[in-house]
Amino acid sequence: MKILFLACLSPKTGNNTTAERIRSHIEKAGHTCELRDAREFQSSAEVAELLSRHHFQSALGIHLFKAGRFLLDIQIPFGIIFGGTDINEDVKVEQKRVVMEQVLLKARFAVAFTEELKKEAEVFMLSQSSKIYVQPQGVQTDVSDSFSWTEFLKSAGLHTEHVNDLRVFLLVCGLRRVKDPLYLADDFSEWHCDDPLNVLIIIGPKVDPVFTVEVEDVVHRTAGISVALERSQQELHAAMKRCFAVVNSSVSEGMSAAILEAMDLGVPVLARNIPGNASIVQHEFNGLLYSSPQRIPDPAGCPGLPARLAAGTRDSSLHDS
């Protein structure tokens, strides 16, 4: 079968990684899958013309609005995968919600990565709930053998003789507002002032240039917080494996790839208590959930907790083989 697959393919983002992984699985199953960036298209008529010209037999999209709206006029069957922000954020905008309802009505099936995301969708689109299937994401991590932890820290502006004593909290995210990377800045800075070995490093692609400038400005004048240059996936996984804990501070998530990757690497997770995160992080088993910056728990403050969390993450990992 020849399949057209639409997704927003911003480089080095969770959506891009997920789309590539799904494309790979489809092709391993013996099908032809052409992955295209939804941002290439201006209308569903353009997509319909592409489908006709290249004789695609079915289509798939990630994100009910960003990809789904371009599938409304096509004459072949299609499925849709919830992206996270479509159900958590875009449904609040009436114009987008109406479009997403139409997409779900026409789709043969829909996939949610978590039971919670399915429940959220059912609140707004209950009549189509029988079409929604839950399929958790799998992940595959690959650690670079040539990665230098010391060089990585220096690139983030951390110059210290106590490299092995640092407690590096790594916040992995694309720099955009929905990821809210500054949510914990003040409180982490207080931690750092109390104990200079505590540091927070923010790493990820500069998705929103205007917001990136804002983040870099705040970080520049906040003690204990750094921004690291983005790295290859292998180097990022190596940095995650060496850090004390991986942090998530997003306003909303479908299923965070960074959290899943941290679990696969056996690294403790500190995650904001939102539905997408709470669906995969069990508090004090495979991670710690916090509801506000003031209530963020310090894994170092409880002897034995980091090791217990690391063991829990390995037990919870959804490894994609």
From TrEMBL:
Tagged with keyword Glycosyltransferase: yes
The UniProt record lists the keyword Amino-acid biosynthesis: no
SUPFAM superfamilies, per the entry: UDP-Glycosyltransferase/glycogen phosphorylase
Record domain Glycosyl transferase family: where: 166-293
UniProt GO molecular function: glycosyltransferase activity
UniProt entry keywords in alphabetical sequence: Glycosyltransferase, Transferase
Segments for region (Disordered): 301-321
InterPro entries (UniProt xref): Glyco_trans_1, Glycosyltransferase_G1
Protein name: Glycosyltransferase 1 domain containing 1
Lineage: Eukaryota, Metazoa, Chordata, Craniata, Vertebrata
